Amino acid sequence: VKDFSNMNKYITIHTAQWPNGKPLDIRDIDRWHADPKFGFVRRPEWVAKFNPHLRHVGYHFFIKLDGEVQTGRHPDELGAHVKDANMDNIGICLAGTDKYTKQQWDALKLLVADLMSSYPIVAVKGHEDWPSGKAQGKTCPNFDVAKWFATKTPEDKNIL
Questions:
Q1: Which whole number is the average pLDDT over 99-126?
Q2: 0.90 exceeded by the pTM?
Protein backbone atom coordinates (compact mmCIF):
# COMPACT_ATOMS: atom_id res chain seq x y z
CA VAL A 1 0.00 0.00 0.00
CA LYS A 2 1.41 3.36 -1.03
CA ASP A 3 1.63 5.94 1.77
CA PHE A 4 0.11 9.21 0.55
CA SER A 5 0.42 10.99 3.91
CA ASN A 6 3.14 13.31 2.69
CA MET A 7 2.77 13.68 -1.05
CA ASN A 8 0.88 15.72 -3.61
CA LYS A 9 -1.83 17.40 -1.60
CA TYR A 10 -2.02 20.47 -3.85
CA ILE A 11 -2.38 21.36 -7.50
CA THR A 12 -1.20 24.80 -8.58
CA ILE A 13 -2.21 26.24 -11.94
CA HIS A 14 0.13 28.60 -13.76
CA THR A 15 0.25 30.48 -17.03
CA ALA A 16 3.27 30.73 -19.28
CA GLN A 17 2.83 34.53 -19.62
CA TRP A 18 3.04 34.02 -23.36
CA PRO A 19 0.91 35.74 -26.03
CA ASN A 20 -2.57 34.20 -26.13
CA GLY A 21 -2.99 31.89 -29.10
CA LYS A 22 0.74 31.68 -29.90
CA PRO A 23 2.05 28.07 -29.94
CA LEU A 24 4.37 26.98 -27.16
CA ASP A 25 5.88 23.66 -26.10
CA ILE A 26 7.29 22.27 -22.86
CA ARG A 27 10.76 22.31 -24.43
CA ASP A 28 10.42 26.11 -24.59
CA ILE A 29 9.59 26.18 -20.88
CA ASP A 30 12.60 23.97 -20.19
CA ARG A 31 14.85 26.45 -22.04
CA TRP A 32 13.39 29.37 -20.06
CA HIS A 33 13.83 27.55 -16.77
CA ALA A 34 17.49 26.88 -17.65
CA ASP A 35 18.16 30.60 -17.12
CA PRO A 36 20.32 30.99 -13.99
CA LYS A 37 17.88 33.58 -12.60
CA PHE A 38 15.44 30.70 -12.05
CA GLY A 39 17.97 28.13 -10.91
CA PHE A 40 15.65 25.24 -11.75
CA VAL A 41 17.71 22.09 -12.06
CA ARG A 42 16.19 18.65 -11.82
CA ARG A 43 17.91 16.07 -9.68
CA PRO A 44 20.02 13.71 -11.83
CA GLU A 45 18.26 10.57 -10.58
CA TRP A 46 14.90 11.93 -11.80
CA VAL A 47 16.32 13.11 -15.13
CA ALA A 48 17.75 9.63 -15.68
CA LYS A 49 14.40 7.91 -15.24
CA PHE A 50 11.79 10.45 -16.47
CA ASN A 51 11.98 12.88 -19.39
CA PRO A 52 15.77 12.96 -19.69
CA HIS A 53 15.51 15.59 -22.44
CA LEU A 54 14.06 18.09 -19.92
CA ARG A 55 16.67 19.14 -17.37
CA HIS A 56 15.21 22.35 -15.93
CA VAL A 57 11.42 22.51 -16.31
CA GLY A 58 9.78 23.31 -12.98
CA TYR A 59 6.24 22.17 -13.86
CA HIS A 60 4.86 18.66 -13.83
CA PHE A 61 2.47 19.26 -16.73
CA PHE A 62 2.08 21.71 -19.60
CA ILE A 63 -1.10 22.14 -21.64
CA LYS A 64 -0.61 23.27 -25.23
CA LEU A 65 -3.14 25.27 -27.27
CA ASP A 66 -4.52 22.11 -28.90
CA GLY A 67 -5.13 20.54 -25.47
CA GLU A 68 -2.17 18.18 -25.61
CA VAL A 69 -0.90 17.55 -22.10
CA GLN A 70 2.88 17.31 -22.01
CA THR A 71 4.74 15.93 -19.02
CA GLY A 72 7.61 17.81 -17.43
CA ARG A 73 8.60 16.51 -14.03
CA HIS A 74 7.16 13.26 -12.74
CA PRO A 75 4.25 13.92 -10.34
CA ASP A 76 6.25 12.32 -7.51
CA GLU A 77 9.28 14.55 -8.25
CA LEU A 78 9.66 17.79 -6.30
CA GLY A 79 8.51 20.66 -8.49
CA ALA A 80 10.00 24.13 -8.87
CA HIS A 81 6.99 26.32 -9.52
CA VAL A 82 5.86 28.01 -6.25
CA LYS A 83 8.51 29.59 -4.03
CA ASP A 84 8.42 28.02 -0.56
CA ALA A 85 5.50 25.75 -1.48
CA ASN A 86 6.74 23.03 -3.85
CA MET A 87 6.51 20.16 -1.38
CA ASP A 88 3.38 18.08 -2.02
CA ASN A 89 2.45 20.36 -4.92
CA ILE A 90 1.83 19.44 -8.57
CA GLY A 91 2.35 22.29 -11.04
CA ILE A 92 0.28 22.64 -14.21
CA CYS A 93 1.10 25.38 -16.72
CA LEU A 94 -1.13 26.61 -19.54
CA ALA A 95 0.17 28.17 -22.77
CA GLY A 96 -1.07 31.75 -22.90
CA THR A 97 -1.52 34.62 -20.49
CA ASP A 98 -5.20 35.04 -19.65
CA LYS A 99 -7.22 33.39 -22.44
CA TYR A 100 -7.14 29.69 -23.16
CA THR A 101 -8.65 27.53 -25.88
CA LYS A 102 -11.62 25.24 -25.31
CA GLN A 103 -9.21 22.33 -25.78
CA GLN A 104 -6.99 23.65 -22.99
CA TRP A 105 -9.95 24.08 -20.64
CA ASP A 106 -11.15 20.54 -21.41
CA ALA A 107 -7.66 19.12 -20.89
CA LEU A 108 -7.25 21.02 -17.61
CA LYS A 109 -10.54 19.64 -16.31
CA LEU A 110 -9.59 16.06 -17.22
CA LEU A 111 -6.04 16.36 -15.87
CA VAL A 112 -7.20 17.78 -12.53
CA ALA A 113 -9.83 15.04 -12.22
CA ASP A 114 -7.23 12.37 -12.99
CA LEU A 115 -4.76 13.77 -10.46
CA MET A 116 -7.49 14.00 -7.83
CA SER A 117 -8.31 10.33 -8.35
CA SER A 118 -4.61 9.41 -8.02
CA TYR A 119 -3.47 11.63 -5.15
CA PRO A 120 -5.03 12.94 -1.91
CA ILE A 121 -5.48 16.48 -3.28
CA VAL A 122 -6.92 18.88 -0.71
CA ALA A 123 -6.80 22.11 -2.74
CA VAL A 124 -6.45 23.43 -6.28
CA LYS A 125 -4.98 26.93 -6.39
CA GLY A 126 -3.55 29.51 -8.73
CA HIS A 127 0.05 30.63 -8.33
CA GLU A 128 -1.29 33.98 -7.10
CA ASP A 129 -3.13 32.22 -4.25
CA TRP A 130 0.07 31.19 -2.45
CA PRO A 131 1.69 33.61 0.04
CA SER A 132 4.92 33.71 -1.99
CA GLY A 133 2.94 34.33 -5.18
CA LYS A 134 1.16 37.28 -3.55
CA ALA A 135 4.47 38.62 -2.23
CA GLN A 136 5.96 38.38 -5.74
CA GLY A 137 2.95 40.18 -7.25
CA LYS A 138 1.91 37.14 -9.28
CA THR A 139 -1.45 37.24 -11.11
CA CYS A 140 -0.93 33.84 -12.69
CA PRO A 141 -3.02 32.10 -14.04
CA ASN A 142 -5.13 35.24 -14.51
CA PHE A 143 -8.46 33.58 -13.75
CA ASP A 144 -10.28 32.76 -10.53
CA VAL A 145 -9.12 29.19 -9.91
CA ALA A 146 -11.51 28.60 -6.98
CA LYS A 147 -14.49 29.68 -9.10
CA TRP A 148 -13.34 27.56 -12.05
CA PHE A 149 -12.73 24.55 -9.80
CA ALA A 150 -16.20 24.83 -8.23
CA THR A 151 -17.94 24.84 -11.61
CA LYS A 152 -15.28 23.40 -13.98
CA THR A 153 -16.48 26.13 -16.36
CA PRO A 154 -14.28 29.03 -17.47
CA GLU A 155 -15.60 32.57 -17.64
CA ASP A 156 -16.16 33.87 -21.18
CA LYS A 157 -13.44 36.50 -20.73
CA ASN A 158 -10.89 33.66 -20.33
CA ILE A 159 -11.82 31.71 -23.46
CA LEU A 160 -9.76 32.22 -26.60
A1: 97
A2: yes
